[in-house]
């Protein structure tokens, strides 16, 4: 064998070994949605958020651009050359990229990256466009609430003039906010003052020991007035565990046992190596099974995605028993990376602690930020339940059916790339939710004038609707909509990136 043929053979062997290694790596969901601001009615409403948790980030072994003996070209042109190579090899829509001769390699790397993106990369949202692929400076990486200091609550925001008001969506257990008695549905109009004073949303995220001024929001037509209610003392922000489990309950009525779970992220544990949350999920479902639950309500209204293995586990616990061991999802890359295509199977009962509920139908509660892994669970249940037996209550989901990889963790470049690299399908090879899943029952939760009752309260707007439909009773009245409604969307989630969404190999 001549030298050239031997080198070619060795290269093919190495590629095949790398492909096999990849099959054993954790597969992860991830995505980021750019912040958007737009106006509704005559009010300034913050409608920007970064939804994270997106769909499927597989660790791909990228040939290293550097060795100890090589010095990479860290100029914009050198960085852009590296970016172009990554995108040409791995980007799902690499055929849509402009030719080299039409590109400006001297512009800043972020603008250069954006110039490579396909029109297929993202979805329309409100008055803007949500791009799935993204680039970020390494030092600007967003940290999760479990990695950085936090008061420990998430909120929707209402902006009037230059002032922000926070509407509490949920409070994390064991957090300074929980210890202070902050509750879902509370309005915070001031931090450290008896007068509305928040002009920067970061004041609600973290800081030193302070006070929150709580208020009642009263709406008359298109006017919103806040009335001071009480002041609470809050300890300084600290690292808070962002547990995905906020409520699990069993309801009995009409001869039925109904399980209910509020699940906020597809996370296996508080860090990349832990499976504490997976184990907890199995325990919770074992409890549901012991209670002979035969109907189920899965609350994903604030769930932005997470690990594919967690989505696989969740689907395995919910699916009909005869589906176990069959296809969960099919992942397909571009033509260059077709060898990395993979099919994941639903887990067998022995692998999930015999906790499968063998459901014939399911009710899913959704919100405007429900995305990625959450949508994958819905889509991957369809072949086994049919769409007609999956009742979606709430708002239209985002519509992210593609996944991304992270590049740049090993190289010395200042940038991390998160391009879309694959598409995910269910067992029927279908992924027909590019525009999101439309709810069967539309209920807009975040409308000023609505009450945000505790999770699990049978009068809570979305839960009560599901329970009424399960019981066969007439559905409860839904908050009337009008053109002048004031609609809010979660805004604190724009800085929230769940730990473990992006697998970053050591630098």
Name a few traits of the molecule:
globular; Pdz3 Domain; 507 residues; 25 strands; 6-stranded mixed sheet; 2-enoyl-CoA Hydratase, Chain A, domain 1; 9 helices; 5-stranded antiparallel sheet; 25% strand; alpha+beta
By CATH reckoning, the class of the domain at 245-401 and 425-477 would read Alpha Beta
* CATH superfamily annotation of the domain at 245-401 and 425-477: 2-enoyl-CoA Hydratase, Chain A, domain 1
Choose one word for the global shape: globular
Structural class: alpha+beta
CATH architecture assignment of the domain at 245-401 and 425-477: Alpha-Beta Complex
Roughly what fraction of the amino acids lie in strands?
25-35%
Helix content: 10-25%
Question: What is the CA–CA distance across the termini?
Answer: 37 Å
Summarize the structure.
The chain is an alpha+beta fold and 507 residues long. Helix content is 20%, strand content 25%. It contains nine helices and 25 strands.
Characterise this structure.
Helix 6 (276-290) runs parallel beside helix 7 (308-318). The longest helix is centred in the N-terminal third of the chain and has 21 residues, at 3-23. It contains 9 helices and 25 strands. Among the domains are: 149-239, PDZ domain (Pdz3 Domain, Roll); 245-401 and 425-477, Alpha-Beta Complex (2-enoyl-CoA Hydratase, Chain A, domain 1). It has helices at residues 3-23, 76-90, 109-115, 176-180, 202-205, 276-290, 308-318, 373-385, 461-471; strands at residues 27-28, 38-40, 43-45, 57-58, 123-125, 128-130, 134-137, 149-150, 153-160, 163-171, 187-191, 210-220, 223-234, 238-239, 245-253, 256-263, 295-299, 327-333, 342-345, 362-366, 390-394, 402-404, 415-418, 420-425, 441-442. The two termini are 37 Å apart. The strands form 8 sheets. The protein has a 6-stranded mixed sheet, with helices on both faces. With 507 residues, it is of the alpha+beta class. Mean pLDDT is 83; it is low at 17-69, 141-147 and 497-507.
